[in-house]
Write a structure and sequence with these properties.
The complex is a heterodimer. In chain A, 46% of the residues lie in helices and 19% in strands. By secondary structure, chain A is of the alpha/beta class. Chain A has 2 domains: 29-143 and 283-359, Rossmann fold; 147-276, Response regulator (Rossmann fold). The mean pLDDT of chain A is 87. By secondary structure, chain B is α+β, with helices and mostly antiparallel strands. Among the domains of chain B are: 60-173, PAS domain (Beta-Lactamase); 359-515, Alpha-Beta Plaits; 528-789, TIM Barrel (Alpha-Beta Barrel), CATH 3.20.20.450. In chain B, strand 15 (465-467) and strand 16 form a beta hairpin. In chain B, helix 1 (7-76) crosses helix 4, helix 1 (7-76) runs antiparallel to helix 7 (265-316) and helix 10 (396-403) crosses helix 11. The two termini of chain B are 118 Å apart. Classes of the chains: A alpha/beta, B alpha+beta. Chain A binds chain B through residues 37-40, 42-43, 45-46, 49-50, 53, 74, 76, 205, 207, 209-211, 232, 235-236, 239-240, 242-243, 260, 262-268, 297-300, 368, and chain B through 109-110, 120-121, 123-131, 146, 148-149, 151, 154-155, 200-203, 211, 214-218, 223.
Chain lengths: 374, 790
């Protein structure tokens, strides 16, 4: 009898312990992250990943989403739509329902239809292809549309009186981004008598002849040169213009606004004007705290890619916690329903199509730093 | 209810538990110790590996710096004068060093003056923002950069830089090669460990997975590890892709790089596994060993239990022997001792019970049950001829009645003592009941052997029994039945022996009798008589005959003796000799006697009235009747009822009455005489005729047995004896009636001796009442004639 009691006691204790551990060790939430992480376009993706990782670290330190820790599967789309589709498929097959990415708009063409066809919710931190907007789809966009950047560049040109003859160098792989800005810009300057007098595309990562391209552009004597490329490529073009001692004002797309630009550009990027998706001088505590943390962690200033990806993750986690669900549709509806999110610097308004509208800032490189334009 | 379990299982399980539980406890205690030891050991080893690799990387950086320094020297001493020379020299170096993929010579403003391999895009670009320029120029110290995307390759790279005159000399390092380098180092330490190197921000510059380098991934736990560097011997365990790994880390001093050595905890478990395996094996072996030992131990216990079980089973079956087991356990010895004590007491009790069951407490002789069982056994054993000798104390009841039951008990006790003292061989003596004893004699050669045994017994009984100054000599009826001659089963043997004994009793003087088949018939007849005796009275099967008693002097009729006759429906006329003793033994003699008395009195009274005579009537009375409490009152009432004068009734008693209780008999006789009736002593001379007591008897008439009359004329001495008895009777003032007078000579002889009355066939045989009147008339006529003759 006594022995039986002891045995039942032991069994009871074991069952209780197992039960408790089962409760504590809930199934983690696994999300996917896709971006270009290698090569000349990787700066955006690497920064985005860093921002995401901070968000994940924070939520896990705070106890996870309703007690469930968050894990991330990182995939490199190599800035190639085919690869992007392949990794999306991989994530889907791994049972991932939530993907943060892609970072570049050229991924939209193949990835968006795939995501829409599957039970997946994709949150784009920096993909700003206009085709994404105004569609009720499986996509939540955190960045404001490209047209905003075109408007800002035009305004900047007008300020410097360089809107008449504009030359554009643009990256051809991320045409979804570069092409739209180029087209918007042409539309914007046209009423002012402005015109894109020259445009040349190049393919990033294919060892483009930066020198010759810039020589061709410069020979057209434009009032302004607009370079729509990754920070790496933009810096290279600026270096060539610098070598040629060109005095033509250079305007960049927000895509280029990475530390790389300053690092690789050196003196060559001084005076370059660039629309910024974030306010680098923001003194809002949430941002400054983030910035400090980021700086100490990665040894560099947070870029818009880092901020936007961080915010994208926060929006997703917030909705998942609120809905307490794993269902992409439910999460999407929760996000849309809440609509207003507190970003690091300002509120993010997400409309019923899952599209955001954000403030955009004009910046200029001065003394090797991004400075807000006067 | 408590569950009953097998001792064997109990011992085995407890034995096993007593081994397994301590072992498990030891295991639980030791495993963490070993685990900790293994972890510590692993960490020490990995720290060493990390330090070693850090040293190698440091050496590698140094080596690379040496290359830069060498170039610097060549540039400075003018060996490499023009661009072409520089270019070709740098290319030569790039080709000979796998780890270097390019050089840049920057001027004081950070402008690329020369680069190798040549790249028009790069030449002339501004590197002023790059730390490798700015820092190196500012500090004039060798510099190692963080990871960044190379403008030459478009892939992550690390640069090392040294100041060169006013500018800076930069070398681009091939991260893939660095990874290869570190991985090659780690390979010598086995598969269990992996290595990674990061720059100062934790960005991988070397990793087994080169993608992590190309994607500029940050070591997931870099900050935790890095911030804890100062605390020394700290352990880092982190989860990588779901697996917990221990991380050792070392700094590459000259490059602000960090070397991480990972080892999955799986390898600790792998190291623990053999230990646990051995532990398990050890436990299993011990359990097996314990089982074997327990079995061996239990074998002894089992043997003891088995023996105990077997022997107690035998005991339970009735074989009361002491338990004798050879065992090694004191407890068992004590158990068997106790059990043996119990067996002994059960045995003792059994003996007592057996004695109670099979022995008679009074005589200490075997009893009837013993007799039946033993005799049956003897028969079953078929041990040859057996004699069953039944001997019964003659008139034991009377002895009891006379001297009191305690005297009877004492006699039985003495009998027992004497019989036991005989130490009978070949069989035994048992007391059946009351005064009935049986000697069973085995191994009989011939029937006569039994007689020798009877003689031996008689010798014992012939000695007087004295108690409280009373001396009694016992007489026995002995009957013998033989096995297998007479009967083959116990009951019959006993019955026949009894019958033979009864026969002896009936025969009177004879002392023993062998059972004969005739007895069986007699027995059957007696049984029939006994059975039909009871209804006979109601059925009026009895009737009386009368034999006249004649006065010798005047030939006048004195009276008649009433003699009972039984007209049995099947057996015909049955002699009183055949049924009176049965009536006596069954007690039926009391009503039968009463009937006789009543009938005789009534009939003689009727004759007296009719004939105007005063005839007397003599009625035989059995001792059983006399000892009956209300007998005198019954006689009195009967006389009154029949209207007979008491002095006309004469009750005849026999000497048997006096054998045991003389005084009692006298008392009864005196009581009867007080009524006014006469008493006569019948059959004088056949029994214990003792002149000594005769003088004290208050009787009126002495009836001399016909045996005397029969032999009277044979010789003179008989006549003298007859004369003496008659004289003696007359002296004692008694009348004399001689029975059995059949001849005139006998009558004449008796007349000479002054005999008072005679009775016999000479005058008349016993006749029915109807004939009595005629006889009386005839006798009266004869008398008258005789008187006339005289």
């Amino acid at each position: 009898m006594k022995q039986q009691k002891i045995f039942s006691g032991l069994i009871l204790i074991i069952v209780i312990i197992l039960g408790l551990t089962a409760c504590v060790q809930q199934k983690p939430v696994t999300i996917g992250f896709v971006a270009s992480l290698t090569g000349s376009t990787s700066e955006l993706g690497v920064n985005g990943r860093n921002g995401l990782m901070m968000a994940v670290e924070e939520i896990n330190d705070a106890g996870g989403i309703n007690g469930r820790s968050v894990e991330v599967i990182v995939k490199d789309d190599k800035n190639d739509p085919e690869t992007g589709l392949a990794v999306d498929q991989e994530l889907y097959e791994d049972g991932i329902s939530f993907i943060i990415g892609h970072m570049t708009s050229n991924m939209a063409a193949l990835s968006i239809p795939f995501v829409n066809s599957k039970d997946i919710l994709m949150i784009n931190p920096t993909m700003s292809a206009t085709t994404l907007y105004n569609q009720d789809d499986h996509i939540i966009v955190v960045i404001s549309p490209n047209s905003d950047q075109a408007v800002l560049i035009k305004a900047s040109m007008v300020k410097n009186g360089g809107e008449k003859k504009v030359a554009v160098i643009y990256e051809s792989q991320n045409l979804a981004y570069t092409g739209t800005i180029k087209d918007y810009l042409a539309q914007e300057i046209a009423p002012l008598g402005g015109q894109v007098i020259y445009e040349e595309a190049f393919l990033s990562g294919s060892n483009p002849n930066y020198q010759e391209i810039t020589q061709r552009v410069a020979s057209m004597k434009p009032d302004s040169i607009v370079i729509l490329a990754s920070s790496f490529d933009a810096a290279m073009f600026c270096q060539q213009l610098f070598k040629q001692k060109s005095q033509i004002p250079v305007y960049l797309g927000a895509w280029s606004m990475n530390n790389d630009l300053l690092l690789q550009g050196g003196k060559a990027v001084e005076g370059v004007k660039i629309p910024s998706l974030i306010d680098l001088d923001s003194q809002i505590p949430s941002y400054t705290a983030f910035r400090e943390k980021y700086l100490s962690k990665y040894g560099a200033e947070p870029t818009f890619a880092a901020v936007y990806t961080y915010e994208a993750a926060i929006i997703l986690f917030d909705a998942m916690a609120e809905a307490n669900s794993d269902d992409p549709e439910t999460i999407k509806n929760t996000i849309i329903e809440k609509s207003t999110y507190q970003g690091l610097q300002s509120d993010i308004i997400i409309d019923e199509d899952g599209d955001a509208s954000r403030t955009i800032y004009e910046y200029v490189v001065k003394d090797g730093q991004f400075k807000k334009a006067e | 209810m408590k569950r009953i379990k097998k001792l064997r299982d109990f011992i085995l399980i407890n034995n096993m538990l007593s081994i397994v539980i301590p072992l498990i406890l030891v295991g639980l205690l030791v495993t963490p110790l070993i685990y900790n030891y293994l972890i510590k050991d692993m960490q020490q080893k990995n720290n060493m590996i990390a330090a070693t690799i850090a040293q190698r990387m440091s050496d590698f950086i140094d080596e690379s710096f040496q290359v830069l320094n060498q170039i610097n020297q060549l540039l400075n001493d003018g060996t490499l004068k023009d661009d072409t020379a520089i270019q070709s020299y740098l290319m030569a170096i790039i080709e000979s060093y796998d780890s270097i993929e390019g050089f840049e010579l920057l001027d004081t403003n950070g402008i690329v003056k020369t680069n190798a391999p040549q790249n028009a895009n790069i030449l002339g670009v501004n590197r002023s923002s790059q730390p490798f320029f700015a820092e190196t120029k500012a500090t004039r110290q060798p510099f190692v950069s963080s990871s960044f995307i190379s403008q030459q390759t478009g892939q992550p790279t690390i640069t090392i830089a040294i100041p060169q005159v006013e500018g800076v000399l930069v070398a681009y390092l091939n991260l893939e090669e660095i990874s290869m380098l570190s991985l090659n180092h780690i390979r010598t330490f086995g598969d269990a460990v992996t290595v990674a190197i990061t720059d100062g921000f934790g960005v991988f510059i070397s990793n087994k997975d080169i993608n992590k380098v190309y994607q500029r991934e940050v070591e997931a736990n870099f900050q935790s590890i890095h911030s804890g560097t100062d605390s020394g011997d700290q352990r880092y365990a982190f989860t990588y892709e779901g697996k917990t790994a221990m991380v050792s880390h070392a700094d590459v001093a000259n490059a602000n790089w960090h070397v991480f050595v990972y080892e999955s905890y799986d390898s600790i478990y792998a190291a623990l596994r053999p230990f646990l395996g051995i532990m398990l094996l050890f436990t299993c072996l011990l359990v097996l060993f314990s089982r074997i030992i327990a079995r061996l131990v239990f074998k002894d216990i089992n043997h003891s239990f088995g023996e105990l079980n077997r022997q107690t089973k035998e005991i339970a079956a009735g074989d009361y022997h002491p338990i004798n087991t050879d065992n090694r356990f004191d407890e068992f010895n004590r158990l068997t001792e106790n059990f043996n004590g119990m067996v002994a007491s059960v045995k003792e009790r059994d003996e007592t019970l057996k004695i109670l069951a099979y022995y008679d407490s009074q005589t200490r002789l075997p009893n009837a049950a013993y007799l039946a069982e033993s005799l049956n056994q003897l028969i079953l054993d078929n041990r040859g001829k057996i004699a069953v000798i039944c001997f019964d104390i003659h008139n034991f009841k009377r002895i009891n009645d006379t001297f009191g039951p305690s005297f009877g008990d004492k006699i039985l006790e003495m009998m027992g003592t004497r019989l036991l003292a005989l130490k009978c061989s070949h069989g035994f003596v048992a007391r059946i009941n009351g005064s009935n004893f049986v000697r069973v004699l085995t191994d009989l050669k011939k029937p006569e052997d039994a007689l020798a045994e009877i003689e031996k017994l008689r010798a014992v009984f012939n000695q007087a029994m004295s108690f409280n100054e009373n001396n009694v000599y016992l007489r026995f009826h002995v009957g013998i039945a033989l096995y297998p001659d007479d009967a083959r089963d116990v009951e019959e043997l006993l019955q026949y022996a009894n019958t033979a004994a009864d026969m002896t009793k009936q025969r009177g003087r004879s002392q023993y009798a062998f059972f004969e088949n005739a007895m069986k018939e007699n027995l059957l007849r007696n049984m029939m008589i006994e059975n039909s005796l009871r209804p006979s009275l109601e059925n009026n099967e009895f009737f009386l005959h009368y034999q006249p008693q004649i006065d010798v002097k005047n030939k006048k009729i004195r009276g008649c003796e009433a003699l009972i006759r039984w007209d049995h429906p099947q057996l015909g006329t049955v002699s009183p000799l055949d049924f009176i003793h049965i009536a006596e033994s069954t007690g039926l003699i009391v009503p039968i006697g009463a009937w006789v008395l009543e009938t005789a009195c009534r009939q003689i009274a009727a004759i007296n009235r009719k004939m105007g005579t005063s005839l007397m009537i003599s009625v035989n009375v059995s001792p059983v009747q006399l000892s009956h409490e209300h007998f005198p009152e019954m006689v009195e009432k009967t006389l009154k009822r029949c209207g007979l004068e008491p002095d006309l009734l004469e009750l005849e008693i026999t000497e048997n009455l006096f054998i045991y209780s003389f005084d009692e008999a006298i008392k009864i006789i005196k009581r009867l005489k007080s009524i006014g009736i006469r008493m006569s002593l019948d059959d004088f001379g056949t029994g214990y005729s003792s002149l000594a007591y005769l003088k004290n008897l208050p009787i009126d008439t002495l009836k001399i047995d016909q045996a005397f009359t029969r032999d009277l004329l044979l010789n003179k001495s008989n006549q003298n004896l007859m004369e003496s008895i008659i004289i003696m009777a007359h002296i004692l003032d008694m009348d004399v009636i001689v029975e059995g007078v059949e001849e005139l000579e006998q009558l004449d002889c008796l007349k000479n001796y002054h005999c008072d009355h005679v009775q016999g066939y000479y005058f008349s045989r016993p006749i029915a009442e109807s004939q009595l009147e005629a006889l009386l008339n005839e006798l009266t006529k004869d008398q008258d004639q005789n008187t006339e003759h005289e």
